Amino acid sequence: MLSLVVLISGGGSNLRALLEASEDAEFPARVVAVGADRDADGFEHAEAYGIPTFATALSNFPDRDAWGEALVEQIEVWQPDLVILSGFMKLLPPRVIEALGPNLINTHPAYLPEFPGAHGVRDALAAGVQQTGASVILVDNGVDSGPIIAQQRVAVLPGDTEHSLHERIKPVERELLIQAVLDIANGHINLKELATA
């Protein structure tokens, strides 16, 4: 049984999907704690399932490295097998990635390496592409540049707005994340091998 710490910044829809999946006794992973870089709305999902939460705000620390050290300390209390960045909108300092990798994965609303960064959906629309997608990746020291675990295309429809396109990407992202967690738990994906490939 994989133990998961999920890091969020917003509403936590992927977190909710993981919590719902883990209601199935056959699902081989359980969320043990939820963290954020602020008092996130998604904490409501954790509280509904009785999952402990913690917030580690960058503004409370003198610099990013000190914040990263504190974040690692909070996460390591739970001794997770896997840490999932799910809508976590802060870049992690190298020390955090070194401490938690390769068992550190991220979801992204684009078909990487296309449209990395905080505005993947907006950037896809601005580029006028006919399709974008969703990805689950290993976290490295770049911006959405780690090895790809899973991804799927999503069509851009005429008249799409950033909101309408993102709403169609989200369910694909959730499915990819849950399947990735399953594949990691069942040994179909080896994160150490992926990190060194």
Kindly state the percentage of residues in helix.
25-40%
CATH class of the largest domain, named: Alpha Beta
pLDDT < 50 stretches: none
Strand order of the biggest β-sheet: 3-2-1-4-5-6-7
Tally of strands: 7
Please compute the radius of gyration using only Cα atoms.
16 Å
Biggest sheet descriptor: 7 strands, mixed
Ends apart, CA distance between termini: 26 Å
Which homologous superfamily in CATH is the superfamily of the largest domain? Formyl transferase, N-terminal domain
CATH topology of the largest domain: Rossmann fold
Proportion of β residues? 15-25%
Mean of residue pLDDT values = 96
How many individual helices?
A: 7
Category from helices, strands and their pairing: alpha/beta
**In the residues, how many domains can be counted?**
2
Shape: globular
**Elements, N to C (H/E):** EHEHEHEHEHEEHH
Please name the CATH architecture of the largest domain.
Answer: 3-Layer(aba) Sandwich
Descriptive notes:
This protein has 197 residues and is an alpha/beta fold. Helix content is 37%, strand content 22%. The chain contains seven helices and seven strands, in the order βαβαβαβαβαββαα. The chain has helices at residues 13-21, 43-48, 64-76, 94-100, 120-127, 162-185, 191-196, and strands at 2-8, 29-36, 53-55, 82-85, 104-108, 131-138, 148-155. Strands 3-2-1-4-5-6-7 form a seven-stranded mixed sheet. α2 (43-48) links the parallel β2 (29-36) and β3. α1 (13-21) packs parallel to α6 and α3 packs parallel to α4 (94-100). It starts with a strand and ends with a helix.
